[in-house]
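fyi for ur records
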Amino acid sequence: MAKNWNVHASGAARVLILGASGQLGRELERSFAGFGDVTAVSRETVDLTRGEELRALVRRVEPDFILNAAAYTAVDRAESEPEVAFAVNADASRILAEEALARDALLVHYSTDYVFDGTKPEAWTEKDAPHPLNVYGASKLAGERAVQDVGGRALIFRTSWVYGPKGKNFLFTMLRLARERDRLTIVDDQVGAPTTSIELARATRAILDGVVGGSFGAPSEWTGLYHMSCAGAVTWFGFAQAIFARSVELGVKAPELKAITTEEYPTPAKRPGNSVLANAKLHERFGVRLALWETALDDVFKALRAGDACV
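which gave:
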């Protein structure tokens, strides 16, 4: 039986979005307009490293849905700030799961492809054993497990290479560097699926609409872990080529690109060689597919041309 979602005096369910200043949080806030009474908070509003502050926020809002798009995502800096990364990505996630369980709310939590070590040649499924190579991946895996340990109504969506028309991301880094340099070197031996915040928010809204409508049955039939990324795969070098094939639309001249190996571009945090996610489970359960990554990139450029950007 579908949950009889709480209806408040406003006649609508309450939605709490964390990470509102981030690229995914902004798109979620847009996508969930009209879904219910939305409260969107950023790190300026709540410090995720302060557990009691986070609990107080949830108890004040009394949400029926919690969308946790907040995360510590500085992959390299996490190597020198593991305590902060785990506080935000793991401890705060546990607190949100506990608060959601206490009021029978649905928690939507986003995780990452970096929980995998990249050694599998095929796309990773939800049944594959995680083995993160860096602190960021380990902290996000700890967050997944914390949510699962608490139980209750929770959806965990692993995604990859997130970017969009708002926020700090690879796309905007490429466009900025192209204005500053005539030649760029880009890693060409790491494979993934660039996934837009637009597609993630759209898919999340479609799934929650179905949940509220009772389309997927009892929560025991649909709660759990799913991969949610755009279709297809590409290297960072290939992604950069695709960006600059379109950048003239924004008046940005394409620089000369040189492909290099991961060995030639050492970073504090190791990255997986292959982090492509298989999305069959998501489609089978919810009937949702994200767009091909090239199509999603076109949509982002359409938003940028319309002036709908915030770096």
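Residues 14-305 form a domain with the Rossmann fold fold (CATH 3.40.50.720). thats all i got for now
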